[in-house]
Amino acid sequence: MALDIPSADSREYYTITDLTREFGVSTRTIRFYEDEGLISPLRRGRTRLFRQSDRRLLSFILRGKRLGFSIAEIREIKDMYKEPPGEAGQLRLLMAKVKEKRGELEQKRRDIEETLRELEQVEETSLARLAEIGVGT
Asked: H or E stretch including 51?
């Protein structure tokens, strides 16, 4: 059974292979998001057909993952769009989550900078001690 799927970018349906190529993810990743209920492609037998809305949603999910959001956070933001308070509430929630992530990352940056300073001190102390005992590096 052949599927008649247009090849233009404005086509109605995309296969899982189309999306894996476009987004550089595995079929397993897309199936995982489907299993988690984040995307819901149409089924024609064993074939998944993704709509333009599924494609946009996959892009949103992948961006959320790159920004460090959990699946639960992505689901919360996504689901808020469908129900009141709708898009405005979704955007407020997203802004709050972004602020929270930014704070976490800034703390991690401070922690990394402190660790790097400590490592530099250990290295300097070790080099000085090696020089004292007459061992070259």
From this structure: strand 47-51
Distance, CA of 34 to CA of 57 (rounded, Å): 11
How far apart, in Å, are the Cα atoms of 52 and each of 38, 66, 129, 131? 14, 21, 64, 66
Each residue's pLDDT tens digit, 72-84 = 999 988 887 777 7
Number of domains in the chain: 1
pTM: 0.68
* Angle between helices 71-82 and 86-132 in degrees, nearest 10: 160
How far is the C-alpha of 55 from the C-alpha of 61, rounded, in Å? 10
Q: In this structure, what CATH number is given to the domain that contains residue 48?
A: 1.10.1660.10
Q: CA torsion, points 69, 22, 51, 27, in degrees to nearest 10?
A: -70
